[in-house]
Write a structure and sequence with these properties.
single chain; 135 residues; alpha/beta; two-stranded parallel ribbon; 27% strand
Length: 135
């Protein structure tokens, strides 16, 4: 799938992602306000395809604002555990990643076991596999 407005290319069908209505509003507004930033583009694409659910409706826990997410970076094999944060609360020193970074945007809405791969604007293959999600 290729979207002409962002030049982000998916190397396989992206997994289903889930968001609550409240998070959808916040995340959509953030993506719109951030404009052309690479993470904003990924986040906008993710919100466009997200399935809006109530917190208990998804089949598994899913990554939300404030969730702790264990993931593997598929480009280098590194495993990290981070907390997804709003931009104002992000702190790399405290392992809080903004939902406006490409990785943060890719993780939002994912469930454990799912992988998301894309090619960034510089042509690099990127990907994450979610290992665990805690509220």
């Amino acid at each position: 799938m290729t979207t002409s407005s962002t030049q982000t290319h998916f190397t396989q069908a992206p997994p289903t992602i889930y968001v609550t209505e409240a998070d959808f509003e916040i995340l959509s507004n953030l993506a719109d306000a951030a404009g052309r930033a690479p993470g904003a583009r990924v986040l906008a694409e993710e919100m466009a395809r997200a399935l809006i659910v109530e917190p208990g409706e998804a089949p598994l826990p899913f990554a939300r604002i404030g969730s702790s997410v264990g993931y593997q970076d598929l480009s280098n094999g590194q495993i990290r555990t981070i907390r997804l944060s709003l931009p104002r609360d992000a702190s790399i020193d405290d392992n809080r990643i903004s939902v406006l970074t490409p990785v943060g945007a890719a993780l939002i809405g994912m469930t454990a076991g799912e992988a998301f791969r894309w090619t960034d604007l510089e042509g690099r293959a990127r990907g994450v596999r979610v290992l665990a999600v805690e509220a």
